[in-house]
Amino acid sequence: MSKNSILDYLAYELARIAALVFLALPAEIYVWLGKIFGFFMFYIDAKHKNIAYRNIRFVFHEEKASCEIKRITKQAFENFGQNLFEILALKKVDKKYIEKYIRIEGRHFIDEALSHKKGLIFVTLHLGNWEISNAACGLFYQPYNVIVKEQKHGRLNSLLDSYRKSFGVNTVGVNSLKDIIRALENNEIVSIASDHGAGESDAFIEFFGRKALMPQGAVRLAAKFKASLIFAYIVRISGPHQKIVLEPFSSFVDTGDKEKDLEVNLREINKKFETYIRQYPEQYLWSYKRWKHSKERSVLILSDGKVGHLRQSQALAKIISGLGFNSGIKTIEIKFKSKISRFFLWIYFYIFGAEKSYSLMLKYIIDKDCCGQVERSFADIVISCGASGALINLIVSCQNKAKAIHILRPGLVSLNKFNLVVIPRHDHPPYGNNIAVTEGALNLIDETYLNNESEKLSSSSSLAGYALSKRSIGLLIGGDTKNFHLGKEAISKAIKEIKHACEKLGMDILATTSRRTPREVESLLKDGLKSDADCKLLVIANEKNIPEAVGAILGLSSVILVTPESISMVSEAANSGKYVVVFECGSIGARHRKFLDNLEAGGYIYVVRPEGLSDKIKELLDKKPAVKALKDRDIVADKLKKIV
């Protein structure tokens, strides 16, 4: 006997015994017991609690605080428990029960619709106890037909069907089109739940701002057979007391353009559903992955304020979009109130975990504006880069039930806590299924990016009329860092060598500095290149920065020359598909040295002394060795496919 068969048998016996017990109890008692059951399930069933919480947060994150969303989630479980126990006691439901506990609003719309002799379709959703609603309608309007999907537990399914039939409810399979048509032709009522879809014939329609699969049956049948449509839903007032609300689909469109009308009407249905759900959020069935098949993803980037780290995060978000997802990207710069508060958060996190750390983080750790942005944000994926953002990522991703992705080593945080960690090879990454090992730093450089940046710069006054077909040398000058100083002597030699190469090879120079470039080096560049006829572009970033300068230079140049201190800048150059020459112009640390050695060993870059630049440029252009571009994005994309 299979596991499902055993579970089915046990569940069936429990349901049968519970039904016998509940029949002897007042409705108020077993409904109260159901609420208690739902309360405990909220704490026991972590899987469905997380699904429900995530769905509710997606819908209400801009208007409700996290504590309110948790309250709604808890109440949704309690309401489900009440529904479940009422279903177990369905045998107790009769006309007398309906008259005592169920109020029906808009009942006259049914009589009016049936008077047209074209049949009637109830457009329903999983709000409140829809089985009680079916029972009420079956008792008063026979025959009454409900479209159902066969459940995997056969005995339970048969038991529920026996209850339904006792009320005059006829269950029809989702694929039994002939039976549905027969019912409409006989002027009967057909009830179709239109809020959950996962079939091949379903349509992607926007639901709370994101497209979700939605059954088309109700609208297609109404259009073809001219049947009336009525919105029908049930909500709990208190205890077993409930009300069924009926509302005609007065805005139904039927212009003759079938496909256009279909989309308009499906959108209108979802808008109505949204209204009902917003009014009674605690009574909706949230524990279903409503947007499972959607290609839309909300990406939240947590920035530590460092431009290089932000660029890497943006590059990763771009990779996600490249996998076929429509990614809405939001960036929040995390600002800590103090270093002490940040240290205290570490301690609290390791004692109480990510979920309980969220409230503390919002109140005491990050500043007020940042706190508000985090609280009002929803994410499917949270991205951070650098050790200071790692812990915040785990806390925020836990709050959103999102995927946590981190770039670079996350400091003291365990790598296993993240869904994916991107670590460059020179940082000695460990092996792991959630580890993506890159050769360099992630960046935005690809062919499209280079073409766009080149066009921007070429159309500006900076390079107006420049012949794009001419070969150019691109020069990217970085600057001083904590452990690196840009040597004046080395830069002087480099300028001399570059000018010499241009004279011999008939090439132009396109150059830019960074904001870290020392003043004396800027002066050397201006004195050596600004008046040179071969220098078509010299951008001094500290005087007049041009945002597209780096991307354009990478796109327009045949050979890229770059200083060694910036892993990000060298990685961007190595991703451009051009010859990249890194010239030594200062002492670099062991980590940077390993990075350069790895790239040189892989054939992505060439490392030379400044005095060897001219010869290396000539050698590359004469011999034309194969150009190798970094494949870091492909490596990360392969890992992302498994989790996104």
Topology:
Blueprint: H1 3-23, H2 27-44, H3 46-60, H4 66-88, H5 95-101, E1 102-105, H6 108-114, E2 120-124, H7 130-140, E3 144-148, H8 154-166, E4 169-173, H9 177-185, E5 189-193, E6 203-207, E7 210-214, H10 217-225, E8 228-238, E9 241-248, H11 258-279, E10 296-303, H12 307-322, E11 326-333, H13 339-352, H14 354-365, H15 368-375, E12 381-385, H16 387-400, E13 403-407, E14 420-424, E15 435-438, H17 447-459, E16 472-476, H18 488-505, E17 508-512, H19 519-530, E18 535-539, H20 549-556, E19 559-562, H21 567-574, E20 579-583, H22 590-601, E21 606-608, H23 613-623, H24 632-641
Parallel strand pairs: 1-9, 2-5, 2-8, 3-4, 3-5, 10-11, 10-12, 12-13, 13-14, 14-15, 16-17, 16-19, 17-18, 19-20, 20-21
Antiparallel strand pairs: 6-7, 8-9
Q: Can you put this structure into words, describing what you see?
A:
With 644 residues, the protein is α/β, with parallel strands linked by helices. The chain folds into four domains: 3-92, no CATH class; 95-283, no CATH class; 296-418, Rossmann fold (3-Layer(aba) Sandwich); 447-623, 3-Layer(aba) Sandwich (Rossmann fold). Helices cover 48% and strands 18% of the residues. The protein is built from 24 helices and 21 strands. It has a seven-stranded mixed sheet. α19 links the parallel β17 and β18 (535-539). α13 (339-352) runs antiparallel to α14 (354-365), α17 (447-459) packs across α20 and α18 (488-505) packs parallel to α23. The protein starts with a helix and ends with a helix. The mean pLDDT is 91.
